[in-house]
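Lecture notes, structural biology module. Today: joint structure prediction for complexes of two components.
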Amino acid sequence: MKIVIDGFGGDNAPDEVLKGAALAVKELGIEVIVTGEVKILEERMAALGISSDKISFAAAEGVITTEDNPKSILKEKSKTSMGVAFNMLAEGQADAAISAGSTASIVIGGTMIGKRIKGVKRTALVPLMPCLGGKRYCVLDGGANLDCRPEMLLQFAIMGSCFMKATMGIENPRVGLLNIGTEDEKGRELEQETKKLLEKAPINFLGFVEAREVPLGGVDVLITDGFTGNVFLKACEGMGALMKDALKSIFYANLKTKLGALCVKSQLKDFMAQMDYKTIGGSPLLGTAKPVFKAHGASDEAAFFGAFRQAKLFVENNAIDEMTKAIASLNIGEASENV
Amino acid sequence: MKIVIDGFGGDNAPDEVLKGAALAVKELGIEVIVTGEVKILEERMAALGISSDKISFAAAEGVITTEDNPKSILKEKSKTSMGVAFNMLAEGQADAAISAGSTASIVIGGTMIGKRIKGVKRTALVPLMPCLGGKRYCVLDGGANLDCRPEMLLQFAIMGSCFMKATMGIENPRVGLLNIGTEDEKGRELEQETKKLLEKAPINFLGFVEAREVPLGGVDVLITDGFTGNVFLKACEGMGALMKDALKSIFYANLKTKLGALCVKSQLKDFMAQMDYKTIGGSPLLGTAKPVFKAHGASDEAAFFGAFRQAKLFVENNAIDEMTKAIASLNIGEASENV
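The predicted structure, tokenised, for the full assembly:
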């Protein structure tokens, strides 16, 4: 299996990209293609003492940044490290593509260059969130599509299920529709109409779920519109930050509390790692005909390795074939609406 | 000042109501009227050894429960402990009313019996949430009105500002409009249109605010529609529960971690108290012409005391006069739409 990675995407490129690639080659048995200015990549490989076994380079010019118009990846920026990665993916020279670069460019490039699965109305970048016991759940839509229609949420539910099964090893992912109560009559027209569709879909649908249950591990796939999804995600993130700050105040209060911190150091470290977004690796762009993953912009070696690991599982378990079949079985119509 | 309280509302009524009332009489210098079956109230007062100084009883029959149709408080349940409290408020026999009973009945009873402020389109039950440093912010709408129009959110912003100024002592409450980004073009039509109104309103408007900043203390008044607001609140609640569970796992892991727990016991207790919804006291029902507070259903003596304290500050600082003037200055029109 060959995975192509944008060598100059993210805050710590190219060094952490290269280190993550080397670890992935060693641990996962894959081949990696790194895109970018080959001279720099070769120099950094040598400086880091990384063997070039199973790591190859693909020449690219410059980087697409958050300041660039994301659509420029389709034209004038198509030769950048991200553009080359997506084009190699589209041409079948790699089985999956990863980038820690500009999110908007990944969504547009991944969708337009990688193409959509037939019948998919919108692609979605899908964050994986930590919940009780170190588990993960995913949220669709996390913010790309503010106004969602029931048919879009139906497709998201199927895509999310296939993803969690393929990469997280959950046999029968529990899908919940976010609502302000679990009673049948609760919610807006969107929740009422979507529920009818999800009840008939080939997924393990739990029904309505309240936001409170989600961080406690109530679902594997959380379905909601992009506005609500984004608010939900950021509320969780803010509470996580509050928690971190509170723990600091508690443990740094005085000498006695610092002793307390020493006593729970390893448990605390484990918990912090569980809650850390970076350890999760990548967020998939779901709905594309070829596997595209976004790594966190602050990714380090371990985070890039996590993204490689996810991409490998995704390819290995034929997640895209599964999605394609399930979406085709819905017969919703084929008009694509992305971008 | 006289405050009437529903003697039989909440899980711990009437004992904790009576204890809270006694504490309020002693600490706040107010008079309290407790509604309910007088014989039972007298017996419990005697059993608890509470002096009847400045505590009087108003006879009522039975209780309205969450199983009752909330509108029954207007007719067949008007003689219940909650019904009598609201009617005394409406008739001017008390300056404010408190109940820990059924939320829906409080909203309907408080709004219909207590009446609306002239021009107010909808009343809102306003939760106070904990944020960084033990501070509080309020959310409007927290779930009552799923579909909100910009003019409703404008009124909520004014009502929330007046409330935070009167009861929390915040001179110039910071009002934020919840959105998925802070850039001008972000959000749905609701956020775009509401922003224009809030920019011209007599409030300290910060502009758009992301959910992440709210638990970190970014605003005093958070404005959003009831669906999003409810999801936001419950996401925060769920993360709080996750945090509590995680702390338990960390500290109960083994003997060494239990020693660690002892070292931070007092700091941890303080933090837990800050995050506890009960210590906040009551949620006001804003938009009513007379002050109505809902205490948490699980309220104990301290929580009831907190509700009395809030109600007293609310009355003392003429919050309703302030709201009435501000709402009148908007000239939005006078059609009321509640219930």
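Point to remember: Chain B touches chain A through 51 residues (CB under 8 Å).
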